[in-house]
Amino acid sequence: MMLSLRLIGLTCLSILMGCSSTHTPIRTESQVDLNRFMGDWYVIANIPTFIEKGAHNAVESYAMNDDGSIATTFRFRKESFDGEIKMYHPTGYVTDDPSNAIWGMQFVWPIKADYRIVYIDENYTQTIIGREKRDYVWIMARTPTIPDADYRELISLLTEEGYDTSLIQKVPQQWPEKSE
């Protein structure tokens, strides 16, 4: 009986140790104006989740619900610019008031995935969404492309935050030009 309890204790301890992060906490923005953050964001680059592999023209859109949750639409074309349109509708929940920088993103009830606004520029035109585990990341902008210098700066920030930036992939974006 005593051996069984020790084994259970050691197993639990091993599991807990395996869950601990070897990184310092990831930085987040000290204050996010949610109203300014709402709207469309083109996914410039990411460490893709399994559903995003092969995504083209990926766009994440946010809209504030009356209850304070955030209606999210993630859409992209699968494997090519004329591929099948895929669309997902997770719900975001701000979990750190007053910064608004840490969310739970719920695709399936009751699980809320870690979602952190690591960076946003002062004009709310470029952002980085990360995770404490540093397993996924999204570089997004209000436009389908950003200047190379800006991209390099964002990658540098992610390097400083402990991401393996060799895993980051640019997301193909090709949109018709808007007529005047």
Notes on the protein architecture:
- The protein is of the alpha+beta class.
- It has an eight-stranded antiparallel barrel.
- A hairpin with a 7-residue loop joins strand 5 (about 90-95) and strand 6.
- The chain has three helices and ten strands, in the order H-H-E-E-E-E-E-E-E-E-E-H-E.
- The protein starts with a helix and ends in a 10-residue tail after the last strand.
List the helices and strands and how they pair.
Elements: H1 2-19, H2 34-37, E1 39-47, E2 55-64, E3 70-78, E4 85-88, E5 91-94, E6 102-108, E7 111-120, E8 126-130, E9 137-141, H3 148-160, E10 169-170
Antiparallel strand pairs: 1-2, 1-9, 1-10, 2-3, 3-4, 3-5, 5-6, 6-7, 7-8, 8-9
> In angstroms, what separates the terminal alpha carbons?
79 Å
Estimate percent helicity. Answer: 10-25%
Shape estimate? globular
Largest sheet: number of strands, sense, barrel closure = 8 strands, antiparallel, barrel
Average pLDDT rating: 87
Put simply, the count of helices is 3
Taken as a percent bin, the fraction of beta residues is: 35-45%
What structural class do you assign from the helix and strand content?
A: alpha+beta
**Spans of at least 5 consecutive residues with low confidence:** 1-21
Instruction: List the helices and strands in order.
Output: HHEEEEEEEEEHE
Oligomerization status of the protein chains: single chain
From the alpha-carbon coordinates, what is the Rg to the nearest angstrom?
A: 19 Å
For the biggest β-sheet, the strand order reads 1-2-3-5-6-7-8-9
Quick one: how many beta strands?
10
